[in-house]
Design goal:
This is Sugar phosphate isomerase/epimerase. GO terms for molecular function: isomerase activity. InterPro entries: IolE/XylAMocC-like (IPR050312), Xyl_isomerase-like_sf (IPR036237), Xyl_isomerase-like_TIM-brl (IPR013022). Keywords: Isomerase. Pfam families: AP_endonuc_2. This protein is α/β, with parallel strands linked by helices. It has a single domain, classed as TIM Barrel, CATH 3.20.20.150. Helix content is 41%, strand content 20%. It has 9 helices and 14 strands. The strands form 4 sheets. An 8-stranded parallel β-sheet has the order 1-12-9-8-7-6-5-2. β7, α5 and β8 form a beta-alpha-beta unit. The protein starts with a strand and ends in a 6-residue tail after the last helix. The mean pLDDT is 95.
């Protein structure tokens, strides 16, 4: 049975409001990216304690820490960022989260990502080492404008680092926004590395984000293939239906609910059970 989660900060900046709607929708997991307008890695000790108590009170668990690790330019200080990754591992332990979302570094305008390959791999290996020591798994998201934005470079990154602590988070909308038809052009190559699925869709013509199944993200085709090959894992709603920016997005309660309804309707149509 598949498990639904979601970037609940797209509901509201207030964690209590996030938890309330998740409960109404029947979700028992969230992807923890921010609370009270502050990124999860910037919450102080008191805020982290408050967040843990609140989530426990609502019976909510954390599927992944929605960190911004790797969302810096390749020429920015990596040692400080590595310390931030170590902190992300500590936060994951605090919330019993098995996963931490990461990225493979922004490219400056005019940079050929393939020319940056060696430095990207060096940094990603270092991050994977941090994850291995911490006993967590990093989920590489195929964000646009980073090294791993297209299937070929995602596969190269994952195979070259070659760590079971660095796996793929599949984001169909992000692939669409770089001109890729996700299932047709990426699924077969990435499936051996695929650990986690983020749910949003987009239109090829303009990159506009939409609810699952309403764009060119080939969500239904991907879902069918995952069912057929026995995938068992998390599907995390990241709707971006109101706002989208480099560090996240926002939908609000109504649009988040619409995104949940669209995806669960798709699962029902395919005869797939979820919790």
């Amino acid at each position: 049975m598949w498990t639904l989660s979601g970037f609940s900060d797209e509901i509201s900046p207030d964690l209590a409001e996030q938890a309330s709607l998740l409960g109404e929708l029947g979700l028992s997991y969230l992807e923890f990216r921010s609370a009270w307008g502050t990124n999860v890695l910037d919450l102080d000790d008191e805020q982290l304690t408050r967040a843990k108590h609140l989530l426990d009170a609502h019976g909510l668990r954390v599927s992944s820490i929605g960190s911004p690790i790797g969302k810096i330019f390749l020429d920015e200080d990596f040692e400080a960022h590595l310390d931030r990754a170590r902190h992300a591992v500590d936060v994951a332990h605090r919330f019993d989260a098995p996963y931490i979302r990461v990225f493979s570094f922004f490219m400056r305008p005019g940079t050929d990502p393939d020319h940056a390959r060696d430095e990207v791999l060096r940094r990603m290996r270092a991050l994977a080492d941090v994850a291995e020591r911490g006993g967590v798994v990093l989920l590489h998201e195929n964000e646009k404008e980073i090294y791993g934005d297209i299937p070929r470079r995602c596969v190269d990154l994952l195979e070259s680092v070659g760590s079971r602590h660095l796996r793929a988070a599949w984001d169909a909308a992000n692939f669409v926004q770089v001109g890729v038809r996700p299932f047709t052009e990426g699924y077969a190559a990435l499936r051996p590395h695929l650990e986690y699925v983020q749910i949003k869709d987009a239109h090829l013509v303009d990159g506009e984000v939409c609810a699952a199944g309403r764009g060119d993200g080939e969500v239904a085709e991907t879902v069918r293939a995952l069912r057929e090959d026995g995938f068992d894992g998390f599907f995390s709603l990241e709707p971006h239906l109101s706002q989208a920016h480099s560090l996240g997005g926002f939908s609000g309660p109504e649009l988040f609910t619409e995104a949940w309804q669209a995806f669960t309707a798709l699962l029902k149509e395919e005869g797939i059970e979820h919790r």
